Amino acid sequence: MLDRSDIRLRAAQLRSNFEEAGALVVDPPLLQPAGLLLDLYGEDIRARAYVTSDGLRGEQMLRPDFTVPVVQMHMREGADPARYTYAGEVFRRQEHDPDRANEYVQVGYEIFDRDNSAAADAEVFALMAKSVAGLGLRAATGDIGILMAAVQGLNTTARRKVALMRHIWRPRRFRALLDRYAHRVPVPQSRQALLSTDGVLTGTDAEIGKRSRAEIDDRIQALREDAAAPPIAENELLALEALMAVRETVPYALEQLRDIAVDLPPITPALDRLEARSAALAARGVDVEHLDFEVSYGRTSMEYYDGFVFGFYAETRPDLPPIASGGRYDALTRRLGQGAEIPAVGAVLRPDLMLLLEEAQS
Known about the structure:
Elements: H1 4-20, E1 24-25, E2 31-33, H2 34-41, E3 51-54, E4 58-62, H3 67-77, E5 82-91, E6 103-112, H4 117-131, E7 138-143, H5 144-152, H6 158-166, H7 171-181, H8 189-196, H9 213-228, H10 234-244, E8 247-249, H11 250-260, H12 268-283, E9 292-294, E10 308-313, E11 324-328, H13 330-336, E12 344-349, H14 351-361
Parallel strand pairs: 1-5, 7-9
Antiparallel strand pairs: 2-4, 3-4, 5-6, 6-12, 7-10, 8-9, 10-11, 11-12
Helix pairs in contact: 4-12, 6-7, 11-12
C-alpha cells in the first residue's frame, strides 16, 4: 500500500522539475461548475464525475481533471505565450472498475504558444519521457487531427460530416455511420417505412415523447435528404479504412500515410505537421525511428484532443492506465475562449503509478 505522503512528495518533485522548465504553478479549485463540463462532454460525464449541488452556484463537480480549468484561466487572464504546471487530486467515478482509484494525484504541464506547435508538442513529450525514464514504459503516439482532416475532406454532405466528427471518439458508432453513408448496409425497415410516408406529421398524428412536432418534422426531412444523397465513393472509403488501420513506427507510418493521401489529399497538411513534429522530437533526442504511431490511438479516451496524442504504458502491467498521457487541444481553447483561441498542448503524470512500478522493480 502506497503512502499518501510519498505520493505527494513525488508529485512535488515532478512539479518542481516542470517549474525549472519554465512553467508557472497554478492551483484550480477542487469544485468546478458542472454546466461547463456538461456542455463540453455531454451527459456522459455524469457517469465519470462526482456531482453535487450548491444553492448559490448551482451544480458543481469535483475536479475530474486540470486541463479545462487551466484553459479557462489562461483564456481569461493568461500571458501569451505561457507554460503552467500543477499537482493535486482529481476525482473519477470507477463503478465499472472498482479496482481503480477514484481519487488520485495528477501532475501536469501545459503550453500555450502560437509560434511553433511542432516544437511545443516535442517539448511536452520529451519532458514526460524524461520524467518516466527508468520505468521501462512503452510510448504510444497518434494524431486525431489526421482522421479529422480525412472526414472533413470527404466528398459528402455537411450533415454527414458533422455526424462523423461527433462520433470520432466512438469507433463502433463511427463505423456504423460510415457503412450507412457508403450504402454498405440495407436501410432498416423502420426507416424505410418512415421515408416512404407522404409529407411530414399531420395534425391527426399522435405526439409521443419530448420532441416537438417541428423537431420531428425536421428530423424526417433530414433523413430524407440523407437517403437521397449519393453514397461515399468506394475509393474514399477504402482510403479512410486504410488510414484508420495505420499502425507503425513514425517513419513507416508517415510513408504509408503519404501514399493514402493520393486518394485523401485533404490530410496532407496534417501529414506535414506530423513530419515537422517528428523532426522536432528527433531534435530533442527522442528515438523517432522506433517510436510507435497509430492513427486511431486515443479515439476512446482522449475526447477533447484534436491533434497529437500520446501515452506511456507499463507493458508488464496491462491492467494499469497510462502512467503519463497528453496531447494537443487547440479546439478546446476556441470553445472556452469566447472568440479567442491559441494553440495548446499538455500532459499529465500519475506519481502513484510511478511509485507502484518502482516498488515492483526494487
